[in-house]
């Protein structure tokens, strides 16, 4: 699946988008998998209350299942307007 | 309904006139415009607005459709810019047309409340001394509970 990062999450991880092969069942599982991979991910995901997640461009939550999902995006709370 | 997510400037007067043109059924048109505000210290150089192409348009469309279901609206317009803006630049506008003003005002407020915290935009303030992401405010999230 494609994993996208925006705003300071993108800056902390160091890239806007990457393709990840994973068997993670939920968003939380994916977060744990990425955090275990490298420190920069662990740093970006250290406080999930400061993050939001979208699955296939719809806002979702961290216990949502990933089955069938093609695009996951992590970002801070939005500041439009 | 028109949703535009764009980097380039927009002409507020031209947009408002085009929105109102040829519409005899709607007696009330409300427009709201958001402008880049300088910091209290007066040293904001650039406001950089990042967004999530694809999701942004979907989220704005969904918010506008919800407004159309809740209020009697003849039309809805949302324009939101992204990229590098300077203090005084217009960031975004919404316009609502309705037979009566209460619906037009309320729907415009609803659109603003939702696009502040449910449309995937992020603002970064760049000054001579550095750059900071604008944090979301609790009051913006709280504002959604009134709807």
Automatic annotation (TrEMBL), chain A:
Coiled coil spans: none
InterPro entries noted in UniProt: Beta-grasp_dom_sf (IPR012675), MOCS2A (IPR044672), Mopterin_synth/thiamin_S_b (IPR016155), ThiS/MoaD-like (IPR003749)
SUPFAM superfamilies: MoaD/ThiS (SSF54285)
Presence of keyword Repeat: no
GO CC annotations, alphabetized: molybdopterin adenylyltransferase complex
UniProt KW Disulfide bond keyword: no
Molecular-function annotations in GO: nucleotide binding
Keywords: Nucleotide-binding
Top-level taxon: Bacteria
BP GO annotations: Mo-molybdopterin cofactor biosynthetic process
Family: Belongs to the MoaD family.
Protein name: Molybdopterin synthase sulfur carrier subunit
UniProt source species: Ruegeria meonggei
Chain's gene name: moaD
UniProtKB/TrEMBL annotation, chain B:
GO molecular function, one term: molybdopterin synthase activity
Annotated metabolic or biological route of this protein: Cofactor biosynthesis; molybdopterin biosynthesis
Assigned EC number: 2.8.1.12
Domain of life: Bacteria
Pfam family name, one: MoaE
Top EC group: transferase
Quaternary structure and partners: Heterotetramer of 2 MoaD subunits and 2 MoaE subunits. Also stable as homodimer. The enzyme changes between these two forms during catalysis.
Protein task: Converts molybdopterin precursor Z into molybdopterin. This requires the incorporation of two sulfur atoms into precursor Z to generate a dithiolene group. The sulfur is provided by MoaD.
Protein name as catalogued: Molybdopterin synthase catalytic subunit
Origin species: Ruegeria meonggei
Encoding gene (name): moaE
